[in-house]
Amino acid sequence: MPVSIKTPEEIEKMRVAGRMAAEVLEMIAPHVQAGISTAELDELCHQHIVNVQKATPAPLNYRGFPRSICTSLNHQVCHGIPGDRRLKDGDILNIDITVIHDGYHGDTSRMFIIGKPSVKAQRVVDIAHEALWRGIRMVRPGARLGDIGHAVQTYAEAERCSVVREYCGHGIGREFHEDPQVLHFGTPGEGMELQPGMTFTIEPMVNIGKRHTRLLADGWTVVTKDHSLSAQWEHTILVTEDGHEILTLRKDERTS
User: For residue range 8-17, what is the model confidence (pLDDT) as tens digits?
Assistant: First the structure.
């Protein structure tokens, strides 16, 4: 499909959906503690999205996905299905939220550290976070998608981590997944040129070990092939006339 350039009216709806997705992560943060199950976190998020925000959790029944959020734990890379597993001290957890409001999607995720992490766990969480921001800083009119991927890849690899290649960011708007694909590796100056009005996610998945992944038998959960720890952070980004706007920025976050 052609890349969607959003109108001012559509951008405003994207802002609302993005703010809602960020708000869910703000709401759930105090609950992410040792002893709670990922299914209980899913239920709390579902109730907040449906009953408080009067919105729709996009993952629920999307291509058969059975829950309202994704929870990816330790060596799980992405698309983890919430279940009975209870969090324990030292775990790292990605919670991925996508909200639909007034027909438009807001998509964001962040890492949580439960208790005291290992040195490796803290390291991969921090490197993935910085990789996200390095990718975001590349976004402006006239830049190329390859500039984003290169910024993410070179930073993560310089820190002796690896970037997952099978899964990537994506355009977003009326549809959960639109064009373009936003790879987290690449060559500067290559790929699609960014234009004002584009909206897409940047969501690097960074492994402390090798980049290779495998899909579990549930058909959704992706894990590292070598069982090494993985971390991911995600924002929905708007290309503006003079740079970018982060549509899913949380209240406690920096903006550059």
Answer: 999 999 999 9
